[in-house]
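U., I forgot to send this yesterday:
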Amino acid sequence: MASSRGDTVPSGIGQLDELLGGGFPRGRCILVTGGCGTGKSIFGMQFLVEGATKYGENGILVTSEQSPAAVRSDMIGFGWDLDKLEKEHKLGIVDVATPKSKVPYAGREEVTRLINMNTLLLAITQIQRTIDAKRIVVDSIPGLELVIEDRAAIRHAIYRLIATTKELGTTSLLISEGRRRGEISRYDVEQFISDGVIFLEQIRYKGKFERGLTIVKMRGISHEPKTCPMVITEKGIRVVPTTVASLPSSLEP
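Result:
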């Protein structure tokens, strides 16, 4: 089985690593943001599945908007058998979306609803140590408002979440969205404290909507901040890393 090498972690996203010079910087936290229907959840799950099946890196999904059952059902269409990965202890799911959580690690113990950030971070830490997870995806940051008692504390919670993933030595994706079309940040801090930002969008191009991906920033990696076409296939997301096929971006002035 192949393994991640050097200071980069293969994203598992078709051809994105060509733009990143090998992958995401190891041990860093990347913000994946964009509007509804741009492929953010698929992006995050592909990162986890490819990591577990091709690169020997187990992963954790924190789902705050969909139940684990819904996520499993949605992803089987791409040929991603999450239940199998869970049983093999290659994937752990922390459920913030339903009243009764099942955390699938070390025998699938039942835990009570995650009601605050302390409980959430403890659950992430326990699973990471149990299955030796190297990748974490949080889908999504806005959904975590459900577990934060004081909504004004969301910024502090984002800081704590990023700090915890780094302390665990994992490479992590935080999924979020702006409040308005073309907006990167919802809380005005996550794009600054994250080590990288990937922006997904739907762009009206030659009379139809096309999906586009822009690497807004990526610390420690030389990259071009151009918008490239992105397609969602039956096997997941694929990026077209060519200048000729590049699309205009809503991020441009």
